[in-house]
Amino acid sequence: MSRQMFFSTPKFNKKPIYRSPINKYQEFSNAYVYSIMVKTANYTPNRADVCCEAAQEWNKIKNKNSTEIEDI
Fold this sequence. Notes:
This protein is mainly alpha-helical. The chain has one domain. It contains four helices and no strands. The protein has helices spanning 3-7, 24-40, 47-61, 66-71.
């Protein structure tokens, strides 16, 4: 393996779930899906499954104040 290949960054699909997020839920969903892609190294996750997981995670944090949500 060449050094250049070793240090190259993975090519993740940066296409968001929501193109122009208009609220905190949509921003959170985009960030959550991207984090799942990075953690699992799965460049094309099942969108329905990941969106369902994002909704479940959002239900856990949606009652926090906006500054806490921004810090997540």
